[in-house]
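Please check this today:
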Amino acid sequence: MPTAPKLVAAICLMVVAFLVSGMIIDNGEEGKSYGYFTFVNLALGFACGWGIMGKRAGRGWTSALNNGLTGMVSLVFWGLFVQGAYEMFRLAMRHRYDGPFEAVLAIFELGVEFGKQLMVPEILITLAIGALVAGVFTEQAARRWR
């Protein structure tokens, strides 16, 4: 059922996903086409905010901060997994893998490689502050609109 905390959490994680996607594109390879990278991350931000953070709102301020961190970690995990799976499929269509098991392992290897791009102080700070703000705003929405 749609609630205000679910909507607020979804919007907060979408904003963070948009900001971090822009930072990744700016720090990435010059001239590389990122395609639907930002839009996929926005959709993941909406899903993680709505499904993970929104239903856990209203349990107190400490839980709100933990809720924000949980939502952000899940957003990063699913972002790395989905982007790694897409890149694996793209490479698989070019016959880069010898078998299906090698292709499935490549999802995680590519996810780790993409995760290394997140290990920049400005991105980590944005993720941390975004998680805390998203948790507080979601908790405030749960308290205000019951």
